[in-house]
Structure formats: structure tokens, C-alpha cells
Amino acid sequence: MSSSLSCARLTAVTVAAVVIQITGLALFVFGFFPVKPTLSGVSGVESFHPPWDAADDGFISPSFSADELKSLYQDLSDVPAQFDRLILMVIDGLPAEFVLGKNGQPPPQEFVEAMPYTQSLMWTGEAIGYHAVASPPTVTMPRLKALVSGAIGGFLDVAFNFNTQAFLDDNILGQLLRVGFKMLMFGDETWLKLFPESFARCDGVSSFYVKDTVQVDLNVSRHLDEELYKEDWDAMILHYLGLDHIGHIGGRNSDLMIPKLREMDQIIKTIHLSTQEFEVNDHKRTLMLVVSDHGMTYSGNHGGSSFEETDTLALFVGPKSSGTRYGSATSSINQVDIPPTLALLFGVPIPKNNVGIVIADVLKSLSGGQQLRALELNSWQLLRLLQAQLPGLSCGNSLCVEYSDYQATQTGKSSVDADAVFCSSYCKAHLLHRSWKSKKVTWSATSEDFTVTQLAYYEFIRTASDWLSHKASDKCAVCLTFGVAAMLVSCLIVFHLLFKLCRHITFGATRCQGEKIHWHLDDYFSLAVILALVASMGSSSMVEEEQYIWHFFTSSMSLVLLRSAAQQLPANTFTEHSSIIFRQFSSIILLLVFGRILRGWHQGGVNWTYLPDISKWLEQAGDSYIHNIQLASGFLAISLSISALFLLRKRRKFVLLIGLIYIASALLVMSHLIEHTANKLAATGYGATLMAQIIYTIISISTAGIVLLVPWLMPIQISGSYSTASNSKLHEKPPKCSLLGLRDSIYITGWAYISFWCLLQLVLQQAINSFPMLLVFMQILASLLYYSTSKSRHKPWVEIATLYYLGMTGHFSLGNSNTLATIDVAGAFIGISEHSTLLSGTLMFMITYASPFTVLFSLVMYISVKNGSLDLDGAQSASNENVLMEMLCFPCLVPLGLNSVVLTAYTIVLLAMRNHLFIWSVFSPKYLYVCATTICIYLGIFIVAATTVYIYSVINFRTKKLSRSQ
Q: Among 293, 318, 343, which residue terminates a domain?
């Protein structure tokens, strides 16, 4: 054993590598995903002047009252306000195709019948409906920001969705407040966090307790009868959450979806009839805008960039149209087009950071001149944003003359080309507008000149909007460089340690000695898996369908192991070896069978989720079948856990005590499954929540108690030949029986980790995932059984790498993917009576990474069941420090090394793909998963290391104490 590779040195270098990796990751994340730059301040009177002749911002001073400011805006705008009151109704998670249909076809008949009043509004021309395309990430908080500001937020807003802060950017609500609007809000409390102290009356409800599908909406609707007929407010926001919660629990096809749509339709009818009565009596015009913040996938989730998730509704009830057929109602706008349209409808400035386009059909009631003025104001506002991004851009009146004959054929890559294209496009519209105004006799919205001018304005506005929407934020080159360099250094350090360990450490009967290392097929294949994964990262399609890579390679790895076992047949035909051969072949066959079932359970990924799979068949069969499978899975998992515990044939009484503790927890879990999970919505009452909390408490106490007390209570004895040994000798030759107690203690502790973890997952996972979780558990047990009998056939890093691959395959087998839409939000609130960002986030993390954590916990058990790792005879010549290092080095360094390769490689891929079309929809969500997996690995190896060191220290302490007493 080389003195240069002591346990203390190995630990220090490993910790340093982790710290370097964390530092590099932090630098890269904050360099690649910076807070999106915005223009400070708010739009004022300058927004009604061209950018090259803007009024002084200081012109708006506190001396102006709200009414005076409103009048000033109206005088400068030349676009009269069309409405006096606004009712913004947000139906969280409502896909537009439920109301407007898809591809020119009407929605399914059951949806049409569920919302008859809403459909009648469109058919009679009292409402105009649009498919509003939302930008990813499709979660509530960034979508609400886009709805009120017209700006596209940064990608990391998905992380801030769970910890909303006050929104300080210019927005339509702030503009309405400045002109004296009195606003009310009832519904999702996210509005209260984004706009504190903005509402005269409000009643917020938590958006994160997704088990509530009824009361969360009743708390909103109960205010309508009183508030709709009051005259002391100007804007009312209603945010209904029940439909989104139904999606999370049961998906689009939930039995509760149609009743919820009927409820929403009745609310729309109530509001619309009251506004009509109010307009007759008070002569105030009311605009009702029904929107959704995002859509949902067929499984009911959201967060990604698929059509189902980005297809949101924008229904304007108030502007008159000629009636809407489904073929024309499917016209598409962007979600960010809503704020500038609202600003012009209510006579206030367009928010400063808006990248949206005014919606032409909503403004058709205006005269031709007013419509072109609205487009002019929109173009000026976008010009200001362009000037902030392109400091050299200048499109004044003098330059418009120079650019009047310029025809841009394509958008150039340099800022100079962009300047020319934008100025040419704007100046063309500006000159046509000026020409149109000079022809007073043709001031008609139907004239050819008007149409040409309108199209010219829209050409410029769309070009500017698209450029601003897709332009990547400036990235910190220094942060990116040092971040990637730090991760590369960390990765090299970890693999240097692994290389030295392979040269110098005897791990069981496998000894690697420099040039004498012989590589076999399983060694090459283990490396090929990770290299193939790295090679696939540059393809967006392979990132979306990563589960196929893992399923293929894990099944292939099982075949490689089967080949390795078959090669031993000629040399092991004696009777005494027959049982070992049978266990090895049985283990590998089980791995293959379980892997194939897992492969067919969920049709994961993005592109082929509609294809049939086992989970869809069971859902079609009915909830009772799923519930029965869940109960059977729980019973089998408990039985296997007890069987694995009693494989420890020694310490019968001690093992029996541990088994009784586990059985008590298991019975509680099974009772919960029987009583509260037969129906998807059953686990919403106080009894179910209390039961889940009791289970959490008992499992936590039982696991912690076993981990902490087993090494103290495990019976140990010292052989007579060592009982008189001096203290100095104890540091050189660990007593044989103490090592036996150490191995048994580690075995029981590892068993406790994975057994209680599986119990917890039975409570947290969706019922449909109970059987896949059981199969993952059985694969791990089969692998441990195989490795316990394989002796020196495989190198330890190959065995641990194979377990790691099984964990990642199980991750995708549970329905996870590289899109944010597959995160199980509903399960994150089991046992939580009120919203807690920390608790729900922790549960969400535990559900998502159930399989990788199971594998990491099993490494504690692996240390024990791998006989060679604690070889009693070989340990006699090893010091305490070296024995500890032999136990921990590979179980900790191999997962860390594999993850370091993936993290570093994908960081480089993300940097290379920074201008790719799918950078925000595919590559960036995948990077968030890679970062989360890194956290999972850190936590897992920390638990493995801390547990093993603790048990070893306690056993060593007890051994010394016992030797002194003898």
C-alpha cells in the first residue's frame, strides 16, 4: 500500500475535488443563466413620443394626480380608451384546445357541452378567442409575469416559481394603478407575492396544495355575488386553480375535468351577465379577459415546451367581432401580445420591457388612424428595447430618408446588419404612415394605403419582437470559462484517485497491480456506457429520449454478466458449486426480466408518449386494478425486505428485534395504502394527511435509531489470541471477531436504508409507480446476490458502475424524463397540511430521484455483502485506516466519477449549443436535471461515507474497550 494514498489524504483530496466541482458549477450556472436584463423605470409620457424625440421622464411628477395623469395620457395617445373596467379571469392550466379546438376542428363534443355559454359568446361575436403560445418554462409564476409585462423572463424563473418575490418591472397592473384604478384579487396567492400592497381587497389561496380541487375555487367564487355589483373597483383578478390541480392528480382525462369545465363556464356566464347589466346602468364598458397561464400534458403536468403545455387560452369578451368559427378561431398569438393590447385598450403606456405585438382583431373597432397610431406606439416601444440591445441603432427622421430605398433580404449576424434591417423596416412603415396621413381623403381603414401601411408596421414589429424574444442574454465569459475549467479539474482529480486505487488497493480478492491489470469485456463495456451517453448529449432527440440509451445498455450489461457467468461453467461443475452457479444465473435472468418489464411500463421521453404501454393499459382497466397492484407491490417489497434481513443467520434475537420494528412500520404503510389510496382524490382529508405525517415520523425515527444504535448493540467478541494484545497492536491487526461485528452492523444499516426508503416511496409515489419501484428494488437485491457470489470475477468499480446504471435506468422507468413536465407535483404534498416550499421541494426531490437514491443507499449493503471487501484473513495485515479506505474508496469515488464525467461533458455541450434552436426547451431543462442528479450523488455518497465511518468508529471503540477489560 503506497503511503502517498492514506485514508486522510484520500478524503482531503476527494473533498477538495467536490468543492472545486461545486464552485465551477455555481460559476457556470450564474454565468449561463443570468437574470435577464431589463430596462429600469416605467413607461410614461415619453412612450407617446418617438425614441429620438422623447419627453423628459421627470415630466411625470407627484404633482399630477391619477386623474390628471390619465387625462394627459389620453391627450398624448390619440388612441381613445375602449374600456373602463377589467375583469381578468385566469383558469390555471386550461389548454386552449378545450375551448377553441385544434387544427381548425372543434373541441371534443364533451368539452363543447361542458362550456355552452362560452361557446355561444364566440359564435355570436361577443368574444374573440386565440391560441396564445406561452414560452417555456410553462410554470405559473413566469407565465403571470409575461401576462402583465409582455416580457420573456429568464429560464431560471422555474426555480423561483416556488419562492415568489415582488415583481418590480414595468407592467400593466402598475400602469393601471398610476391612473387611479382600484384593483381586487381573489385566487392564487402568487399575485399577492408579485404585487404586494396593490389590491384594495384580496383573498389569496395557496397554489401548491394540489390535492385540493374544490375548496380552492370556492374560495374565489364566494366573492363574486358581492363584488360584481359594487362600483368601487376598476379591475378584478380571479385566479382559479382547481383545473390545474385536477390535471396534476388525474391528467387531462380525469373524471373531474368535465365537471370543473362546467363550473368555469357557469362562472363566465355569471360574470358576463353582471357586466352587461352594469354597462346598461352605469354606462361603463367592461372587458372580460379569460386566460390560462399554461396548458398541460396528457398526464396533467406542465413545465416543458410541448404544444400541449404552451397552448394557452386568450378569450376577449367585450370587443365585437363577426362571430367565430373554429377554423378562424384557431388563429395564434403569443402570450406576451396580451399586455400591449390591454395597455392600448385602457389608454395607458405599453410596459417598458414588452416584446409583444398588439392584437389587430381586438382593435378593429378603432378608426384607421387610431389603429395605425396604436401600431406606431408599439413600434416606438420596441425601438427603445432594440436601442438598449444595439447601442448603435438610430432610426430618426433623417435616417429614415436614407433608408427609404433599402431592401433587407435577410437578418445579418453582426450588429451593423441588424441595425440596417431594423431601421429599413421601421422607416418603410414610418414613411408609408406619413404618406397615408397626408392623404386625408383616404383616411379609411379599408383603403389600400391603410392596408399597406398596417402590413409594413407589422413586418417591423414582428421582426423586432422575434429578435428580442430569441436573443440570448449576455453571458459572463469569465464565469463560463472558470466554471468549465473547475469542473474539468475536479473530474481529472477524481479519476486520478480511481486510477491510483486500482493500482494499489486490494479490494477483496481482486488485486490490480500496474501492468498486470487485465481488462475483460465487462470492463470495456462499463466504460462504453458512459462514453456513449456523453456522445449522445449533442443530439436534442437523444436528450429527449435518453431512457432508450439506459434501457439498452443496462440490458446489454446484464447479457455481458451472463456471458461472464457462463464462462465459469466448465471450471465449476462440481456439486458444491452448483448452488452458486444457480444463484448467479438466476440473478442475471431476474435482472433481464425485470428490466424488460420496466422498459414497457412507461412510454417515456417526449416524442412517443402517446404509444401504448403497461401503465396506460392499467389506467384504462380502472383504478381498482392499479390499487390492487399497489397493495401487492407493497406486500412483496415488505416480504423481500424481511427475507433479506433474515439472510443474516447470526444474531438471531437481534435480527428479530430489527425485523419487528420494520414490520410495525410496514403495517402502518399498508394500512395507509388500503384506507387512503383506493381513490386518487382520497388522500385529501385530515385523516390521510395525519396518517402520512405519522408514517414519516415513524420511518425517520426507526431508520435513525437503527443506524445510530446497531453498532452499539451489535454483539461482538474478541478471539483469545488477541485478547491480550497491546493497544498499539490493535491499530495494526484488527481482531477477527470485531470485523465480523462490523460487517453485520453495516449489513443491517444498509438493509434499513433501502427497506425503509422503499416503504417511504410506497407512500409518495403514484399508485401506478408502485410496481416499477418494486422491480427497481428487486433488481438491486438480485445484483447484490450476484456480486456476493461472483468472488473476484469483476473489478469493484465495474460492479458499482453497473449498480449506478441500474439506478439511472430506474429513474426513467418511473416515468421521469428530461422535461420539467414529468415532475410529480401532486406527490410532493402528501402529508403536508399547508404549503411549505422547503418540505414540498424536498418531497418532490425524493420522488423524482427515488431510484438513484435506492442504489446509493444499497452501496452500504454492498460493502457488507461483498465478502472480499471485509475479508477477515486479509484484514489482519491491514491497519484500521486502510481497512476503512478499502471499504469506502470505490463505493464513494465511482458514482462521483461517473457523475463528474456526465456533468462536465454536458456543461461543455450546453455551452456549445448556446445558440441552438432548442437551447431553452431541451438542453437547458436537461442541465437542470444534471445539476439535480449531482446533488443526489453528493447526498448519497455523503450518507454512505458518514454511515460507514460512524459504524467503524463505534465498533473500533468498543473493541478497544473490550480488549482492555479482558
A: 318
